[in-house]
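Support request, please re-run this one:
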Amino acid sequence: MDKLKSLYRFISGKHQTVHLDYKVDAKPRFPISGHPQLKTVIDANRAEYSATLKAFLGFKDQIQSIKKESDEKDENLPTWNNEFLPGLDIVGIYGMIATKKTEKVYRNWFWEFDESSEKSNNGQPFGNSDYFY
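Re-run finished. Output below.
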């Protein structure tokens, strides 16, 4: 029966199988409680991390209003163009940019940005800067 299940999973489009040239011993590197040194750092700053994440909740409506690039008709509005970026990463990136208002991050990370687009948007890096206030 196990061989039949294995064959089904190999053929089925619902499952993806990775074949390796070597045996893998799948066991966790760290105990269920996590990496001890990371846990120490996180615990020491837990209140700050919590406050930062709670601040991101204030951007819920703005984040949810951003459309996929293919669905947005207004080229001056921000869009999502990376389907491989997980939702929590999107919230983190948006939240850090919105709370820190870092021009360097604007230019280097989030959207493709050049001087011509800055001039065409009245000096605003995102056209509609209401997304970050």
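Residues 42 and 132 are 28 Å apart (CA to CA). Confidence is low (pLDDT under 50) at residues 108-133.
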